[in-house]
Amino acid sequence: MVTYTVHEPPDPASDRVDRSVDLEFVKDGFSWLTAICPPVGFIANGLWLFALAYLVGAGVLGWALTAWKLDPQSIGWIFLFINIYLAFEISTLKRWMLEQTGWQALGVVTGKSIADCERRFFESWLPGQPIIANGTANHAGTAAAAVAPRRGSRFWPFGQRG
Predict the structure, then answer these.
(1) Where are the domains of the chain?
(2) What is the pTM of this model?
(3) CA–CA distance, 51 with 84 (Å, rounded to integer)
């Protein structure tokens, strides 16, 4: 089972179909990409400043540990622990960054896959949203069928990350 938090941009559209396209699903859990190479993991999640901060911080920490004459194996272990910690916290950092830019958390959803989570979320969220389409009201089933959750995100436009 995977868990996602759902976030809405600061100025959402008035139509529920338009609002649903802009929602951001943030996966909660461990990121292998961030564990292997944190700057690439940060960039893949749209956290450019964190990638830059990691590079600067890693350079300073590496220099300081070398100046203290720590053996290379100990330095490697320190960086491994830092990378593993960041791999667990990348989703927290992404949610924090969304919050700082005015995004609002709408809820948490759990499912077997991103598609299952999106379906579950939209089944409970869509009925409570206003229907506005070309100045006329649609039936709830028609509007729900018209919603096609996007596979990319504002952070990574090349498709869904798992």
Answers:
(1) 2-146
(2) 0.74
(3) 15
Q: How do strand 104-111 and strand 24-28 relate by DSSP bridges?
A: unpaired
Cα–Cα distances (Å) from 141 to 21, 109, 120, 145, 147, in that order, read 17, 22, 15, 6, 10
pLDDT in tens, 117-156: 999 998 988 888 777 655 544 444 444 444 444 444 454 4
Which of 111, 96, 79, 84 is CA-nearest to residue 30? 84
Q: Is the pLDDT score of 158 beyond 50?
A: no
Q: Which residues pair with 109 in a beta bridge?
A: 4
